[in-house]
Amino acid sequence: MESQPLSARTPSPYTHTCQSHELTLPISDPFVKVSLTYMGKRMKKKKTSTKRNTLSPSWNEALVFNMGKEMLKHTTIECVVFSDNLLGTSTEPLAKLCIGPESSGDEKNHFNDLLHLRNVSARWHHLVPP
Predict the structure, then answer these.
(1) Which CATH fold topology does 5-116 show?
(2) What predicted TM-score, i.e. pTM, was given to this entire model?
């Protein structure tokens, strides 16, 4: 599966936001589950809307997680793409992205900027196979 862009940003030190855009996968009803994990324990989870009957969905949604700045250095955000279907939600993830202290590459750079910079802009990230 080709990796696809996903953007995550923090507009203020106490709010975490994740946005998804232009995902191209061989599915027709995709959505994204976003989980916030603090020190290995899942604290919160949210879900985007399902984009029906499309192979190239685009999400323009902000999922906001309120948290203290001191918690951020031990927090991971995981975005996992699933497919909805007539029989229910697929349990097989199609793609994912993790941004947190254990990340590498661009995701690690973005996470470090979230920790140390006051104003962090939205960035594109690549989804990878689960």
Answers:
(1) Immunoglobulin-like (2.60.40)
(2) 0.74
